[in-house]
Every structure is written in structure tokens, then in C-alpha cells.
Amino acid sequence: MLIEKVYFAIDMSQSIVLFGPPGAGKGTQADAIVEATGKPQVSTGDMLRAALAAGTTLGLEAKKYMEAGELVPDDIIIGLIEERMQQDDASEGVLFDGFPRTIPQAEALAEIAEVSLVISIEVPDDAIVGRIVGRRMDPDTGDIYHVTFKPAPAEIAARLIQRKDDNEEAVRTRLTAYHNQTSPLAKWYEEKGLLATVNGNQAMADVGAEISAVLN
Ligand code: ADP
Ligand code: ADP
């Protein structure tokens, strides 16, 4: 039997995409990838939440989509990314988290930055809802916890928040959006020879080990 091993050339000036359904563990795994590659994390979800918290026009425009679990329109997202990629720390490539989520976004990205690797974290739908509903965030540090799978230390438990869209109804809408609009991107990137899949349905440390094997 021929065992094929695919090697990804990680060019230091190129960007990496962290891909997967909501709750796949993208945010959880991002820190280690940032540390390993030196590329800054660019999370469109975090950028939209920051815009919303700052009360900008863009944040208010995005709010209704986010709370319903629908995708924010492509032109808003592409505008955000264009602006972000002009900052100095993006010149050697970044780690995209939660972007692109549609084919038009991926086409726009191809004009803005060079992507050398797409890491797809695969998790079945039936594991997603429990992850999302149990997710908690530390507003001071941005750290991600889970009531069962990653409980926060007692001293910070009181300040944890739950995202408004982390409820069962919005998660179902987000999963539908993922399957209809985002998952076709996996094939799109696979055809370009850029897709590496990892099993996200295992302990966080084991997912991390698979990702570092891809990076090395
Ligand atoms: P994403 O950024 O892809 O939406 P997160 O990293 O925020 O996902 O993870 C969603 C929730 O699932 C969080 O509460 C996180 O603690 C938890 N989680 C992440 N990875 C795992 C895993 N491998 N097993 C169990 N729970 C996980
Ligand atoms: P999760 O990883 O849990 O799905 P994110 O923080 O990535 O959540 O995104 C939260 C919400 O922000 C999404 O449900 C969507 O409304 C909006 N959003 C984030 N990134 C994008 C994107 N690339 N395109 C469209 N909408 C986005």
C-alpha cells in the first residue's frame, strides 16, 4: 500500500487559514500556532465584537447578523480585512481565524494576501452544540473556557461572560450557514493543494499535536 505524505511548504511571508465550523476549536488552538509561526491572529469574529463594543457604525451594522447567527455581508468583512492587512505586523503574513467563510471572501483574500496553508479542524455537528452552549470567555484576557471541557480557575470564574450568540438557536443557524456557505471552501482549497485536515473531535492537546505535526 502506498502511504502518501503531503508536505506543506510554510513560507514565512505567507498567511495561514484556520478553518472549521463554529466551536471547532479554532480560537483554542490559535495561540499555539501564533507562538510557533510568529504570525499575528486575525479573527474576524473578534474584530466584529470589538467594533460592536466600541459602538462603531460597522459594529452596529454587523450586530443583527451576529446575534441571529447569520454571516455578516461579504463587503463588510472584506473591508475589515483589507484595512487590517495594511498594518505593519501583517507584512509577513497572518493567521486567519474564522475568515474566509464564503467563496467570494476567499476570492477577495487571494487578491490581498498569499495563503500557503489551510488547517481544517473537523468536528461533527453533534459535538458542536454542547461546545458552543458551554463556552465562556474571560473578557479581560480573551481566554476561552468551557463549563465542562475546560473549567476556568476559581478566582476568575465570577468575571466570565457568555457570548450572546452562544445559545442553541443561534448555533443551529450558524451550523446551517457553515454547511451552506462555508464548508464548500474546503474543497476549493483542497483543489489548490492547500488543505490539511485535523481531527478536532478529540482532547484539545491531541488536536494541538496534530496541528503542530502539520506545521512541522
Ligand atoms: P471556535 O473558535 O472554532 O469557534 P473555540 O476555540 O472557541 O472554537 O472552542 C469552542 C468551545 O469548545 C470552547 O468552550 C472551548 O473551550 C471548547 N473546546 C475547544 N476545543 C475542544 C476540544 N478539543 N474538546 C472539547 N472542547 C473543546
Ligand atoms: P464562531 O467561531 O463561534 O462561529 P466567530 O467569533 O468566528 O464565531 O464569529 C461570530 C459571528 O461573527 C459569526 O456568527 C458571524 O455572524 C460573524 N462573522 C465572523 N467572521 C465572519 C466572516 N468571515 N464572514 C461573515 N460573518 C462573520
Provide the fold topology.
Blueprint: E1 15-19, H1 26-37, E2 41-43, H2 44-53, H3 57-68, H4 74-84, E3 95-97, H5 103-112, E4 115-122, H6 125-133, E5 135-137, E6 144-146, H7 168-182, H8 184-191, E7 195-199, H9 204-215
Parallel strand pairs: 1-3, 1-4, 2-3, 4-7
Antiparallel strand pairs: 5-6
Helix pairs in contact: 1-9, 2-3, 4-5, 6-7
The protein binds adenosine-5'-diphosphate (2 copies).
CATH architecture of the domain at 1-24 and 119-210: 3-Layer(aba) Sandwich
Judged by helices, strands and strand pairing, the structural class is alpha/beta
Largest sheet: 5 strands, parallel
Question: What Rg is obtained from the alpha carbons, in whole angstroms?
Answer: 17 Å
The set of bound ligands, ions and cofactors reads: adenosine-5'-diphosphate
* DSSP helix fraction: 40-55%
Q: Extract low-pLDDT stretches.
A: none
Strand order of the biggest β-sheet = 2-3-1-4-7
- Give the ordered list of helices and strands: EHEHHHEHEHEEHHEH
The helix tally amounts to 9
Average pLDDT rating: 94
Question: What is the CATH first-level class name of the domain at 1-24 and 119-210?
Answer: Alpha Beta
The CATH topology label of the domain at 1-24 and 119-210 is Rossmann fold
Name the shape in a single word.
Answer: globular
Give the terminus-to-terminus CA distance: 25 Å
Corresponding CATH superfamily of the domain at 1-24 and 119-210: P-loop containing nucleotide triphosphate hydrolases
